[in-house]
């Protein structure tokens, strides 16, 4: 279902063609990184730290190097030491430990051998002497007075800092006078919350194949959200010029932010360089969970004031995030900004704290779900205390265009109110809550981002077009590119071949993240198509013998007064005689990403004897700006929602005292399975983003923000017990119910 | 490491290969036979991405030793379409946008085929439980379930 | 003159002032002007902040043109997932 | 490591005798993850699935004989078996996904000796016997005597389970198995409870309650069974105070651990809940013939 005020009349945008890359994927022919094998290829395996924090006194690889099938062994000594102020320092240290292992699972050596089993056996035979260091696992331990240092190279960002610290970042936003507002408020609710580490949980483990040739150039096939990112980070870690590396993007088997950085490629490259053979490096599931991702654990305090008639007057929050063992997690401002109500008084502080746990990575709207869980729980409690409808309270206070963001800058055109109204008017919300169940509501948003994209459009001699971009397609973006190109050029969407090219075949393009592919790369495609149409008009003018100004482009054909329309295919067929091949490239650094708001609603039951939650009905409403391919917009909403449901109910990292992950498998890291869920109903709201030619906002991030509080709010109404700790697993709910 | 000569049928074709005794059928299919449709998502039978049919029964090929395949009849995702047409499940998945990244898709299609082969008219709940062994992280399962329902309708129509 | 809105973290350079006025036809020129008046602030804004101008957030804003009516909001860098 | 697929029990016995430390397997659904997790590989992997006797299910003379390597899905799809032992059948239907159930076997589920094995409490409640190839012959022992602790069994080197035998239940008998898992599928039980009971009209005359995942092995709780014997059934529901006593006895019998899957307190509390709910299902089956 889609809600749009005045939908424009597009021919292709907004339709649901079969995705162009779908056929290969349903017949098993799509090439993911682990599907590639090269002649003479070796297989590599890691040695990882069995300790949460330790100095590496010595590494002896001589036994391993002499074992059957072994062709090369690397340790940290085989990689250049970057300066700690280098922006790639943290990535480099995480790829391979130097001197100190910072978490249980930290890679400290790797072996390439003729079989994977031989490589694993040899890696296990590497002798390491460790000097154990204190292990800091939680935010509280890390912030305690006299806490041991997690990482001796860490310096706090954004504040004055003298020397190493466990503080990663401190961000503060404030306006007005919160103390005065709380002192005079009719009603104040204050709560503390915490959430566990969760993993992005993509089904495809990280994988790459690297072949370093005798000329020193590296061919890399990798699964990532951005192959130009793979090129630059791999080069930095190896101390190479980026131009030595060509990265070909494999199909990516899920990322969700977790594949916006690298782990494998420099290791495989060095092993390939040393052995003179291609090297394949594929993580096991256990390695994925122990040593990639996760999203930060968090603690927070939220205090909100309201007047008796439901005006929200002040908010004061403190958010703490365990960002892992290194300090390159950005985006905490996003966390604070989810307080998307018209608070005249506001004080928000977000703190990143280091712990001896895996370096964290982005996970759909990084840091926002944890914060929205806390804020939207308190908002719901205020609605209960004021006896107001939870949508009504939010509508009364929701931000609209021109209202300040938490950062102070006015919001551009946004669709928060439209989303709230769409849920209020939905069949779900207007239906009675089922007997024995309860209903919860929650909201969230994400700024989305722009960044750099490139696109090339080649018009082929048969009148088809190839649209080439540098954005790995993680959820259907190729179909979106084809739809926008079809709309611009006026030809059938199936006469367009969208593809993602390697780093040497398309212009630089930033990572597919922040819901930016359809927005930014889509804009590059549109710009390229518009340039192509200019050229087509010029060619048509030559063919028709008129001035270019006399030619207009209508429905895929050049039109001049008094002449038959000249279709694109006819111009393409005469490319040679009118000036040569028809090919254009466009690139940009996009600003104007449109924030995407979402409002969710959930009906659920709680088994008060076991603490188990059953979700009966779920509706996700989100402003897409414009849904280019509505099926894949719905898919983003549904996928994000279900990840949020997992985060709310059962997903969590369980560490032992030494930081060893006890549940490093899909058996015990419990992502939702099909039988846990109902259908996820969606309502796409379309409030076009004025900064995009088709009004696109981008939809990938926001869907994961509202579910945590949406479910907690329903649980609170079902049980009269407010759960402030995630996950709301059955043991935790039962314990909370039994606590008077 | 001992190696065993294995003779079996894969997607209707007689094949033979040499496999290390400790290797999985999944590795043999991917490495020895070049059938990379089945994926390894976990290697422990928890994700279902490696699902294949062995003698008509749904299995995780990562939990089968390759030599066990001797004499068996194996169907992978590469073998469910006929020469001219996609299997109705494949077609319904395409039309219903039931895949995003596509890594789980081969296993989901095989598991759904096993279900519909045994139960041509499953309820939504039966579909959800039949696919509970196939993890998907992109879709939230909604469009997968709907597409299996649609394929079931089409298969019944074709059988009529 | 363009008005510059500072994050709390940067107000230590301005004696707690949240909004300061500045000279300059580009964001880069504005930053240079601020560095003159508030030593250290320019450096902090150059390496650790994005700029919100006219409702759009720019990660590398130094050559962005501004005029006397422009509000510049310096914010911590954003990424996505 | 070498793979071997004997076709007779004697051939399997010889392989195990010649290669000490070798492992038999049926579905390998536990074995392969254990090897991947670093457990030393055995010298010979002895695949039992090519031995007819271990893959056969026979019902004759009031007794079932179930080949130890038979996939559990063969039994859950067996209507006669499921009609007679609905609780045991539903326990087998909870062992992992459909993929797993096409491989998992009663023999493997028992010999793997996980305290949380779903089929084991249900087998014990139904007094299932295990027939073990031992030396040159066989010995038969109650299922309850096989597992001795997590991963530990009373099976000697070279012994393996050949088949299970179980007598048809008396008339007016029903069984049920319930477990608590955080999701709806694919999890290891935090608590499992099997109940089998026999009724005479509106009175319970016999009851067995067995718990899983709350102690180093599955535990039979005589006090919980005793609480039901003699209890009145009113409109299909067992007397509430008997059920309370049952639940308390079940909780009291727990000797659980805190681990990544659940806490001691949670397991203890939910054991009573699961036992009571299983009893409520079982009594319906006993009275109504399913």
UniProtKB/TrEMBL annotation, chain B:
<dbReference type="GO" id="GO:0046872">
    <property type="term" value="F:metal ion binding"/>
</dbReference>
<keyword id="KW-0001">2Fe-2S</keyword>
<keyword id="KW-0560">Oxidoreductase</keyword>
<keyword id="KW-0411">Iron-sulfur</keyword>
<dbReference type="GO" id="GO:0051537">
    <property type="term" value="F:2 iron, 2 sulfur cluster binding"/>
</dbReference>
<feature type="domain" description="2Fe-2S ferredoxin-type">
    <location>
        <begin position="4"/>
        <end position="80"/>
    </location>
</feature>
<dbReference type="InterPro" id="IPR012675">
    <property type="entry name" value="Beta-grasp_dom_sf"/>
</dbReference>
<dbReference type="InterPro" id="IPR002888">
    <property type="entry name" value="2Fe-2S-bd"/>
</dbReference>
<dbReference type="InterPro" id="IPR001041">
    <property type="entry name" value="2Fe-2S_ferredoxin-type"/>
</dbReference>
<dbReference type="InterPro" id="IPR006058">
    <property type="entry name" value="2Fe2S_fd_BS"/>
</dbReference>
<protein>
    <recommendedName>
        <fullName>2Fe-2S ferredoxin-type domain-containing protein</fullName>
    </recommendedName>
</protein>
<dbReference type="Pfam" id="PF00111">
    <property type="entry name" value="Fer2"/>
</dbReference>
<dbReference type="InterPro" id="IPR051452">
    <property type="entry name" value="Diverse_Oxidoreductases"/>
</dbReference>
<dbReference type="Pfam" id="PF01799">
    <property type="entry name" value="Fer2_2"/>
</dbReference>
<dbReference type="InterPro" id="IPR036884">
    <property type="entry name" value="2Fe-2S-bd_dom_sf"/>
</dbReference>
<keyword id="KW-0408">Iron</keyword>
<dbReference type="GO" id="GO:0016491">
    <property type="term" value="F:oxidoreductase activity"/>
</dbReference>
<dbReference type="InterPro" id="IPR036010">
    <property type="entry name" value="2Fe-2S_ferredoxin-like_sf"/>
</dbReference>
<keyword id="KW-0479">Metal-binding</keyword>
